[in-house]
Amino acid sequence: MVLLSRPIGHNSPAGLRVTSYGRVKRPPEKAVAVRPTVFLSSTVRDFRDLRGAVKHWLEDSGFEALASDYADFDMRPDESAFDACFDAVRRSDFYILLLGFRRGSWYRDSISVTQQEYRVARESFEAYGAPIPILLIRREVQTLLRAGLTESSDFEDASHTRRFVEEVSATFEVTEEKSEPIERRANWLHDFDSFRDVVDVLRVALDLKSDLSRQRRLNAVAAEVETLLAHMMLNEQVRATPAIVEATRKLLIQLGIKETEADALIADKPDWTVRFPMPRHAALDLVVERHPLSSERERVELDAEDAGELFWFLLAGLAAPEAMRMEAVWDAARTGAFLDYDRGLRAFGSSELSTALSDVLADTVRYGAARRAVEPYLAKTLGELVEPINYGRRTYLDGDAATFIWAVHHVEANLYLRLAALYDWLNRRRDSPLPGSLYPLTPLGDEQVARILDETVTVESLRLHASTPGYLTTVWEPGRRQRPDAPDKGATEQP
Fold this sequence. Notes:
Helix content: 40-55%
Oligomer: single chain
Radius of gyration: 33 Å
């Protein structure tokens, strides 16, 4: 018996799926565990080496593996060894059965311990949806049973093994209480010859497309991104567009309401409004679009509608930087968990995901700086906007204030777009974690953007100059400043 533990859930943070039988439903005391749980059921003498290898593989894959023959799982003082095993089966998320030539110890009434473990697992699965069964049989045993050669000396108890395999493979059974057969879903019985065969089955059944530490980090990042997006949005009440009205109609029909009734419900609310989450920065989007800035930092003329949107953005549209915690994203970036291996360079390099995470972190820092820079203008600007809004008058916004406000809008919008793209990618709704179009680096026009790009040192540029011996070190030491292309007497020539 090998035991592992994991958080329970339909699409769990460990990336392990619950099948179409339904969501796992557990008693409260069994609903949380630290790591994925798998119970390995087999006779010990028949599979001692294989059990040890599977246990090691599971631990190496990020599971906490427990095995009865290793005496490393808890047992209550008032509990028998059999009951401890059966309780462990019920607490598990997956149940692995290995069938071989040996029968093992008897439990009671011609039922072996391993057979009873299977029955406990099956009953728990039918009641709660877990543990999910993964059933394997040694290929030689399967071949002999199919050929009817049960007299082989390899069998410890051929008749018991045959009955057990038939029970595992059956799609229905007859109980003593009911004469009618109870239909059951057919079990898939995998055959195997080697440890590699077992691992190949487990990789698919446990959905181990990647290691668990990566899955944990991905799910931690996803939860953090979801929280950040919620913080960067507000519920807005707006008039329903024709597209929203039609989508609502389709939803009502999908819920079982007749088309005529759905049409009547919609027609009964001709001026209805809807409330849904919108990005905080969206309040200023149209104002920024209508009033592009230039490097001259000229004052901006606003009508009453523009003033109202600007007032709302400054009042509620600026997300609080202190709420933008990035522990999971920082951890993923710091550990290099999502780097890709470059076979040409024989080293790990950036992937789309690692780039997306780095960009999110960089924009978070930029937003904090932009938010602090705009702080001195908030109270003054809000005060100046009240009268134009109340009396429907035009007003002017100072050029410096406009520059800082437009800049913090751009950075906040870009951070939101990066988080939204990453969130959609994590939920498999887009092919890339990188966003499409973004706001420019500065609101002061294309010329300033070009200047910033020219002054920005890229990684490729750094690598090119770093290949010059001594460029990054001796050339820039105190007292040794010289033109980069001048010969450096202190640098030794590299072959």
